[in-house]
Amino acid sequence: MSGLLIILFGKTRKVSDLISKFDKEYICEMQLHDFVSESKIIEVFNKFIGDIYQKPPLRAAVKKSPRIRRIYSIEVLDIVKRNILFKAKVQAGTYIRKLCFDIGEILGCGAHMTELRRTKIGPFSEDDERVATLHELVGAYKEWKNNKNEKYLRAFTLPIEELLDFLPKIYIKDTAIFSITHGSYVAAPGVIAATNDLKMNSYVTINTERNEIIAIGISTVDLSKLQKMDKGMVAKIDKVISFTQTAGSGI
């Protein structure tokens, strides 16, 4: 296994469960246990696009019960004898090793995965200019540790606001920060604005006027309803990212 990996540290570790739900893209090499025609291979691969049932492999650290996972796209890139190179965009929690096994079963010859590379995680790609190799990351860390030069280390890091930019946002007044970070829900009087993609029962970031994320919430209304509200709950808090003791205690 090689390719892209998102490393969380500091307060961003609180959103690891959100990051784990990102869709993934892989490039995989699998080997068939016998020769099969190219037309048959393409035909069977196309059958796996859409929702599939998948039982996690024995090595997986999850319950070994069948579950539904979605294959958004799967493309055969090359076929050399019994070796097949393909690219797949899949729902989080899809096991590519098991996908190779299942394709081999349908082909009737058996198959196993030989190489796997993760090329995308959600909105992030291995082609992103901020992606670093482990050697580059170690070098940047040593430069900061030994010479107090944080330039190179910062070049490989993202603020949490950029990491979660794909989520809808609810902007709140400074006077609402204290109550929200100490157990209260997001109430309509404390809301300044929301982005156009706000939908009911979806994850949202709770942002200050300065666009700083203080919490992750689950919306209880959509944008059209929010625009008509002058009281009531707008979002319930899932996790607090940043506490504050200095902001106002009222709305």
Folded structure, characterized:
The chain contains eight helices and 13 strands. With 251 residues, the chain is an alpha+beta fold. It folds into three domains: 2-125, Alpha-Beta Plaits (2-Layer Sandwich); 129-158, no CATH class; 167-240, Archaeosine Trna-guanine Transglycosylase, Chain: A, domain 4. Strands 1, 2, 3, 4, 5, 6 and 7 form a seven-stranded mixed beta sheet that branches. β11 (203-207) and β12 form a beta hairpin. The longest helix is centred in the middle third of the chain and has 14 residues, at 134-147.
Keywords:
8 helices; 7-stranded mixed sheet; 23% helix; Archaeosine Trna-guanine Transglycosylase, Chain: A, domain 4; alpha+beta; 251 residues; Alpha-Beta Plaits; 3 domains
